[in-house]
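Session log. Operator J.P. requested a structure for one protein chain; no other inputs attached. Running the standard single-chain path with token output.
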Amino acid sequence: MERIAYRIFYDYEIMTQGFNFHNELSNKEIEENINSLPSELETMFDDEKTTVSISKSAKYKDLLFVNSELDEDEVDKRVINALKGLSLFGEKLESLDEVVIK
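Structure written below.
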């Protein structure tokens, strides 16, 4: 089972590039969207062996962890779809060595 980590963030400037109909989210809305990400992903994976969690870190504000038996490309696709639906972005971390959990 692979553990994949993503740095999760919101960026209004990126969101509006080529799409000017997006209203800027408040800090509360951003936090709510980040907190709802695990439940959103659990329905997308629909698999008892996949686990999803959000953690805070010293280096990155919000981290998403996905443990799954699915191949990494499939996990990435599902994470990207969930992030888009919540107006969020993610950057996959190449190494878990750089992650320090608060």
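Operator note: The chain has one domain: 2-94.
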